[in-house]
Amino acid sequence: MSERRRVVLATRNQGKVKEFNRLFADLGWEGISLAEFEGVPEVIEDGETFEANALKKAIEISTYLNLPALGDDSGLEVDALDGRPGVYSARYAGEDATDEKNWRKLLDELESVPMEQRTARFRCTIAFVVPGAEPVITTGSCEGLIAREPKGTNGFGYDPVFYIPEMDKMMAQILPEEKNQISHRAKAMNRLLEVLK
């Protein structure tokens, strides 16, 4: 595969890498995880928005490796919690929290909130940086509700407690190919592909 078709994904999260590579398949690109490079410094995600974090990741990794890089930041925004966990989604229950600890904390906080007020969305911002070019930034979201109990074994993060009304399923109950039609990451990625084409 030629060098220009390889894109460094500014993540070590293998769930994300798999998702991105399913989305990249149509372009004939290959997303490479940071885990495949020695000594790449950790990017500190200290931005206050998804866009700031995505851009920081893409710029730092692209600059360090001198390769095209794609950074994304995504998370869950819950209306009843004023948009939390937001940029702190991955570490909501603490720095080394597991996915389950994060969504359990969320369910605890929403315990007294009625179902109709448990509206939420997954939001994803993608930044694509090619050395010497202007960054391309796109965003996508997926609307749903936070369920009272987890269901399903697909996906990762908050997928087991994120209910999609039009599918009458949790995000963790749908197949990967279905998720790639409706997810926040897929929508942001499709917008990026439209720009890049």
From TrEMBL:
Sample GO molecular function, one term: XTP diphosphatase activity
Active site residues per record: 73 (proton acceptor)
EC number(s) recorded for this UniProt protein: 3.6.1.66
Keyword annotations from UniProtKB, A to Z: Hydrolase, Magnesium, Metal-binding, Nucleotide metabolism, Nucleotide-binding
Statement: the UniProt record of this protein carries the keyword Lyase: no
Binding site for Mg(2+): 73
Electron transport recorded as keyword: no
Cofactor dependence: Mg(2+)
Database matches in HAMAP family: Non_canon_purine_NTPase (MF_01405)
Function: Pyrophosphatase that catalyzes the hydrolysis of nucleoside triphosphates to their monophosphate derivatives, with a high preference for the non-canonical purine nucleotides XTP (xanthosine triphosphate), dITP (deoxyinosine triphosphate) and ITP. Seems to function as a house-cleaning enzyme that removes non-canonical purine nucleotides from the nucleotide pool, thus preventing their incorporation into DNA/RNA and avoiding chromosomal lesions.
Name by which UniProt lists this protein: dITP/XTP pyrophosphatase
Organism: Brevibacillus reuszeri
